Amino acid sequence: MAITDWPELERPREKLLKLGPAKLSDAELVAIFLRTGVRGKSAVDLARELLLHCGGLSSLFAAKRSDLAGLPGLGDAKFSQLQAVMEMARRALAETLRSGDALGSPAAVRDFLRLTLAKREHEVFLAVLLDAQNRVLACEELFRGTLTQTSVYPREVVKCALEHNAAAVILAHNHPSGVAEPSHADQVLTQSLKHALDLVDIRVLDHFIVAGNSALSFAERGLI
Questions:
Q1: How far apart, in Å, do the first and last CA atoms of the chain sit?
Q2: Pairing mode, if any, of strands 168-174 and 203-211?
Q3: What three-state secondary structure class fits 118?
Q4: Residue 105: pLDDT above 80?
Q5: Which of 10, 41, 34, 38 is nearest to 24 (CA)?
Q6: Cα 198 to chain center, whole Å?
Q7: Quick check: 42 and 11 in contact, CB under 8 A?
Q8: What three-state secondary structure class fits 5?
Q9: Hey, which residues does 209 pair with through a beta bridge?
Q10: C-alpha dihedral over 107, 109, 113, 116, to 10 degrees?
Q11: Which CA distances in Å does 184 have to 94, 122, 160, 190?
């Protein structure tokens, strides 16, 4: 049965307009994005298959073009739209951080870092650079490594922070393994960076480890 033949409040678009997007399932939201189904399958059916194939909504958004090649309903045009949606979300969160106190929006910081680092295949280390009012000046990807590790040089982190005239930084890196727990090396590195930045009067406010849908905060763990 086509979606147009469903009862009005069961149709994803009408349901969203009536009840709001939070009331829709992941499959219903993806169905609105797909707009149409294929012969014998509604957009909701296709959405369920895509989510099952990818392993969930976050994995769908993080999928590469090659991961989705050949899947019904997601050709190059839809893949481009999907990437545009993700980039708009990242930029909207970045605007939120730039417009106010980053420490006053911990959820926005976490969400921004998850969108930026989750599902990256190699370890990436970045720094969010803040002014004296904890407003975001820039977010710089400083180092990129292998599947299991990356080399981080305190001198380069200090240099970047000074170039942006930062008063504080939030550090972050990802664990492609999917496990967000900090290793001993992560803790040693954090203390080394904190000491190096302290020498030039720049505070380390937090260090996040992003793994899958999780983002672990060193500050919340009492590790900074």
A1: 57
A2: parallel
A3: coil
A4: no
A5: 10
A6: 29
A7: no
A8: helix
A9: 173, 216
A10: 100
A11: 30, 19, 25, 10
**Which of these, 124, 142, 102, 129, lies nearest to 202 by C-alpha position?**
129
- Residue labelled with tokens 């492609």: 176
The pLDDT value given to residue 74: 76
Over the Cα atoms of the chain, what is R_g?
21
Rounded distance, CA 168 to CA 192, Å? 15
Q: How far apart are CA 176 and CA 9, in angstroms?
A: 40
Quick: pLDDT tens for 74-102: 788 888 888 888 788 878 777 766 666 66
Maximum average pLDDT range among 60-69, 76-85, 198-207, 209-218: 198-207
pLDDT for 202 = 97
User: Which of 78-92, 138-152, 189-203 holds the top average pLDDT?
Assistant: 189-203
Distance in angstroms (rounded) separating the CA atoms of residues 76 and 78: 6
